[in-house]
Amino acid sequence: xxxxxxxxxxxxxxxxxxxxxxxxxxxxxxxxxxxxxxxxxxxxxxxxxxxxxxxxxxxxxxxxxxxxxxxxxxxxxxxxxxxxxxxxxxxxxxxxxxxxxxxxxxxxxxxxxxx
Length: 115
Prior knowledge:
Layout: H1 3-6, E1 7-13, H2 18-24, E2 29-30, E3 49-53, E4 58-66, H3 67-89
């Protein structure tokens, strides 16, 4: 089983507070460069970084999150989008002026998104 099957990875710009936010307030862990063949916790070695802006010297830090946590977070973020799409599929909402029916433009009398 590959490491990508167990973890999700992302590069995060090393700006003040950003890495701290991702590691302390979320489930991301910093990846170390100890063993290139097997990525381990940053506590065991130096942090894996990459230059993202040579002019300013800004770096990005590689983070990883256990795949089940990543998938759960992604599903949670998708819920508001699903709610909006469901509302769109149900048809037009009445406007604040009460315009509906023949006074408002509604293709075919009902919203057709997702059909």
